[in-house]
Amino acid sequence: MRMGVRLWARVWAALRPYDPLRSIKAALQLLVVVSVLITTLLVIVAIHSATELRVITIFSIIACLLITQFVAHGLTAPLREMTAVARAMAQGDYSRRVARVRRDEVGELAETFNRMAADLEAVDQHRKELVANVSHELRTPIAALRAVLENVVDGVSEADPETMRTALQQTERLGKLVSQLLDLSRLDSGAVRLDAKPFEVWPYLSAVLKTASLGMEGAARAGSRSRPRADVHLHLDVSPPELAAYADAERLHQVVANLVDNAVKHSPPGGRVTVRARRGIGPGSLDLDVRDEGPGIPESERNRVFDRFNRGAHPGGDGGTGLGLAIARWAVDLHGGDIEVAESPRGCRIRVTLPGSVPAQR
Predict the structure, then answer these.
(1) What does the pLDDT read at residue 51?
(2) Residue 9 class from Cβ within 10 Å (0-12 exposed, 13-18 middle, 19+ buried)?
(3) To which H or E segment does residue 342 belong?
């Protein structure tokens, strides 16, 4: 049975160039054949009915023109519709589509055109969301910084260390957001190139965690409004201790720092964040896990957690921008690796897999 179906599929594919419904060439050939047949039939009628030849010629021309007009209208209708849709897209309307009513090359072109329109609509929607989100994220620290400075200028508050510390916090938050946006811009444009080199994992990750720990202590001393987390303990687990990997140190630092920062923000008081590193499958490859003891990520959110400005079920609660995990994903993609939310009995576990070899630049 299956053999017969496959054979029929091959025969149908071989006959496709001769199917007038699936090939413009075959449709035009059929038009010529029909026109010739009509003319021949009218000539035969004229011979047997003693009708003048010029009358038959006029009727033949009219019949051929009508058939040609009918076929041409059917062939060009999708093209006219595509022209109208393209003009609407030029004016910013990406919602219109071309109805695919043909199965030939024009129908395939219409389907491709619709896919392009859908991609452009998604890009335009993403652009609008990006502008809206960036505007919102920039407005918050700018408004806070302006309020602090206005209070100082108006004499409402003194320019004491506490007030200046508050202004500095908002400035640092603004600078962090701008830096993240620049990172994403470089990643999107392909301006970032990997400078992968072998390195020892233990001292490298130890330095990253030390920097993160100093940042947490500094935020706690400054009295940061976004929850000082000096009470969260950072733990490093590397096995074997002499483990070495092959990656871009600067890009990997972005990955680990953003994952640790995200884990710390969602850890409970006195919680623990563990960074676990193991040897991967290939030479120089690396398997990296960052775990926390927080509420975890619902399964329904795991596919969107790496989207830009996505802050899950905690929007605005920690002062984050929702860009950290997006930057981590792009940096991992540059290495040709994978990043995902893995199953964990407690808290959240982000798994990063780096292949250990430099992929072709994309």
Answers:
(1) 67
(2) exposed
(3) strand 338-342
